[in-house]
Amino acid sequence: MVRASVFLAAAATASVALAQTNAISCGLDSLCPQSAPCCSQYGQCGVGAYCLGGCDPRSSFSLDSCVPEPVCQSKTFDFSNLDGITSENDYLGDATTTDWVMSGQAVSYQGDSVLLTMPEGSVGTLLASSTYMWYGNVKATFKTSRGAGVVTAFILLSDVKDEIDYEFVGVELTTAQTNYYYQGIPNYTHSTNISLSDTFENFHTYEIDWTPDTVTWLVDGQVGRVLNRKDTWNATANRWAYPQTPARVQLSLWPGGLASNGAGTISWAGGLVDWNSPLMQNGYYYATFDSVTMSCYNASSPPGTNTGVSYTYNNVAGTNDTVIDGDKPTVLKSLLGSGLNMDAGGSSASASGSSQATSPATIPGLSGGSPGSNPDGSVSAANPGSTSSASSSSSSSGSGDGSFSQGGSSSGSGSSSSGSSINQERVLKGSVFAAIVAVVAMMAL
Ligand SMILES: *[C@@H]1O[C@H](CO)[C@@H](O)[C@H](O)[C@H]1NC(C)=O
Ligand SMILES: *[C@@H]1O[C@H](CO)[C@@H](O)[C@H](O)[C@H]1NC(C)=O
Ligand SMILES: *[C@@H]1O[C@H](CO)[C@@H](O)[C@H](O)[C@H]1NC(C)=O
Ligand SMILES: *[C@@H]1O[C@H](CO)[C@@H](O)[C@H](O)[C@H]1NC(C)=O
Ligand SMILES: *[C@@H]1O[C@H](CO)[C@@H](O)[C@H](O)[C@H]1NC(C)=O
User: Fold this and answer.
1) Where would I find the GH16 domain in this sequence (predicted)?
2) Fewer CB within 10 Å: N-end or C-end of the chain?
3) What is the pLDDT of residue 400?
4) Which ligand is nearest to the CA of 138?
């Protein structure tokens, strides 16, 4: 309730951008309409990419609106090239051909690592794994970025917003901040720090070992933090407030220090980003990722199995016992599809006809043809003159930069603000980023 009404307030604040794109917001108390059934990671309704990674089944039109989540595959990614990294504009859910789904711009570096870049005017770069881990172990070896307002992150994030984090603020290069969330409910007592040598100068290996009973954060093989499920019991809700659902690995670089962000976020991020900083190279801030290894958990019975093709939810509770490890397909025919109609806009050329004129938003943050939202909340016809994506091969979307928002990641540890204002800010952050992204996309059209 609080979250939903705050979200509306945030949307009103960002009304200029949102009015231009007519995005429909969604949340636990405002599910998406059938015409744009998928609630994206950033709380906006659409089809296509909105229904793939990050789609929250609890806030979508129905539990089966989101496309099923590809199950875990153990694999090491050495980042010696950009193979296996696919722009979210081109990804249809086939995890056998894509390891990472990208928003923003990754650059190959010296044939052995990948730079996540953040040029001025962008909201940085996000790589999200195409498969989901339901417990298991993930290690990432990287150097963070640096500079005021510049945040590097390595997190696990589930579609119902269970989250396990490492976050790095660019003015605190000897601190790794760790955190966790159950279903995105903020609690700023959950943040703790690990001290280490300079994270920009040195590669460190950051590890998350996640079982049904324990989360262990390790840096260079040394335990930095342990969370036990038994310490997370919520007697009011009668459940464990512990991360327990299949999650994607997300690697990101993003600007916490944008003037349009909340004061608490800017302060947490170490101040405003300086876009003329000598710390930038080739016109961007960057973080250097050397490798990632995902090792699936190998339970023989749920929770934590990886025997099927995909994970789905059978109840809006979104707890571990509502996850089904089954055989539903994960691949859309086009970016007009959703879990309700996986074959929409298929190969037939007719997809480019009338459907193009009425297609709802298909790429989060890129506003091609999002449906209008009337004051009464009903959905109106499409945005005329849009350059919507009628097929997977569409390249009409915006430039490579600035196409993701970072609503899923936390901020504000150690802040003295009250819980409710932090809650507000967490929600606000997501929508403000979405608004920025929308403006960037509009300018690119
Ligand atoms: C935050 O988490 C702590 C420890 O898990 C718990 O004791 C506390 O009650 C939580 N606070 C809120 C507001 O949920
Ligand atoms: C899974 O969820 C059920 C229902 O909330 C709970 O009773 C059980 O303890 C959970 N198991 C794990 C491993 O989290
Ligand atoms: C327990 O769960 C309820 C319902 O989700 C929530 O409002 C409350 O903040 C939680 N309490 C703690 C201590 O986490
Ligand atoms: C998988 O199972 C084996 C044997 O029980 C165990 O040694 C290993 O740690 C497990 N792997 C993971 C990622 O849990
Ligand atoms: C973690 O480190 C940051 C930056 O130094 C600091 O602002 C924050 O208060 C610390 N958090 C905790 C829980 O110690």
Assistant:
1) 62-277
2) N
3) 31
4) 4
| 59 alpha carbon – ligand 3 mean position (Å) | 19
Catalytic residue numbers, as ranges: 163, 167
Kindly report the pTM of this predicted structure.
0.81
Give the mutation target among 193, 199, 227, 416 for probing the ligand 5 site: most ligand atoms within 8 A of CB.
193
Give the pair of three-digit tokens for residue 39.
């609630």
Domains in the chain, CATH or no CATH each: 70-311 (2.60.120.200)
Query: Closest-lying ligand to the alpha carbon of 72?
Result: 4
Is the pLDDT assigned to residue 357 strictly greater than 50? Answer: no
End-to-end CA distance of the chain: 36
> Is residue 387 pLDDT above 70, yes or no?
no
Residue 4, pLDDT score: 27
pLDDT on residue 361: 80
* Residues in the ligand 2 pocket, defined by CB under 6 Å: 212, 239-240, 244, 303, 319-321
Which residue's alpha carbon is at the smallest distance from atom 3 of ligand 4?
298
pLDDT over threshold 70, residue 116 = yes
Q: Tell me if 193 CB under 6 Å of ligand 5.
A: yes
Residue 12 has pLDDT above 50, yes or no: no
The closest ligand to the CA of 212 turns out to be 2
CA of 140 to the centre of ligand 2 (A): 28
CB contact at 8 A, 38 and 46 = yes
